[in-house]
From TrEMBL:
Signal sequence, renumbered to the chain: none
GO BP term (any one): cell-cell adhesion
Organism whose genome encodes this protein: Pseudoroseicyclus tamaricis
SUPFAM superfamilies: Agglutinin HPA-like
Name of the protein this chain belongs to: H-type lectin domain-containing protein
Domain H-type lectin: 39-104
MF (Gene Ontology): N-acetylgalactosamine binding; oligosaccharide binding; polysaccharide binding
CC terms in the record's Gene Ontology section: cell surface; phagocytic vesicle; protein complex involved in cell adhesion
Superkingdom, natural source: Bacteria
Length: 117
């Protein structure tokens, strides 16, 4: 559980098209074995520290006749942004993926002092 100090807490959210590999026989559609896609996301304004981030699949277009394997997660979370990481492996064929994300964390307000030592 994450507990925030007194002060404002903000929610930022968005959606990202991670890839569309069926149009040009990209690796997620035509490849086999371990495959990974990373997309950088920048928050609309920085948090005071790394926020809690949740990533979900919003659209999943895949081929029938193969096993469905997937992992989606947030990585490298900082106060300014993070990376969405999507992995698949084996014979899975994925045409395209869209993801949604939500970040929750503390932000600065006008009453906070920025004192540097």
């Amino acid at each position: 559980m994450r507990v925030f100090d007194a002060g404002p807490v903000a929610v930022d959210q968005g959606d990202v098209s991670l890839f569309s590999d069926f149009t040009d026989d990209g690796p997620m559609w035509a490849g086999t074995g371990p495959r990974e896609v990373r997309r950088a996301v920048t928050f609309s304004r920085p948090f005071l520290g790394p926020p809690s981030v949740t990533v979900s699949i919003a659209l999943w277009d895949f081929a029938a006749g193969a096993n469905l394997r997937a992992e989606i997660r947030a990585a490298e979370v900082t106060k300014a942004g993070f990376s969405i990481v999507f992995n698949t492996w084996g014979d899975t064929k994925i045409a395209r993926i869209h993801a949604t994300w939500q970040a929750i964390g503390q932000v600065a307000d006008g009453e906070m002092w920025d004192v540097e030592s």
